[in-house]
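Batch manifest, entry 17 of 40.
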Amino acid sequence: MMKRFFLWMAALLLTGAAGLAGAQATLGSGDVVKISVYGSPDLGLETRVSDTGTITFPLIGQVQVSGLAVSDAERKLASLLEGGGFVRKAQVNMVVTAPQSSNVSVLGNVNRPGRYPLEGKRTMMDLLALAGGIGADGAEVVSLIRRSGGSATKETIDIIDLVRTGQLSKDVELRPNDILYVERAPRFYIYGEVQRPGAFRLERSMTVLQALSVGGGLTPRGTQRGIVVKRRDAEGKLQTVDAKHDDLLQIDDVVYVKESWF
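Output type: structure tokens
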């Protein structure tokens, strides 16, 4: 299943990368803009949109531009220049030379973590594809962290469930400055009389018998009747449970295979 998933993500990468040719939707904090006024070279400047969403423009002072399309910001500056009697029939041109506000961060266990431009409408799956897909050690769920009004919210999205059910409504449309974070996949541990002790990826609905298979099976001295699982309860206390083959494992379980006495 995971192999098919990674192939699907690779296909998304190719189609998603080919479509990144749109223009930035709106201005936002951190964007660097270059502004010129036709016939008034002394009014030209390059500046950064402040954290409060404003720029400081000659003769006018502070102007709120965050949330405006570039064309709307041009018209707003022209109107202010004309309204103040500074320029007649002002023709303002604005170019975003370094977009910062329309980026999304893709972090954690992806193949190419980093900040990616959010050009046009992009969904979570689009950005995961641009980041090269989920890495081999990545979990099957993605955390979407979104800032709004000085606070942050976190939503967890099950990628495998989204793909299996085709519920594209869960493939949320991203906003500027969103953060996608892919944690490391959950693990279990196995030791004792097994061929290959160690830490391994915990698959969904994984049983004790499947864990033994991942561990390479029993050694000649191992016994299937001597398997225990050590796990911590809700209070963090370590519990030891006699395990049956069809028992389901939990995150960070430790499977121990005892030695046969005869």
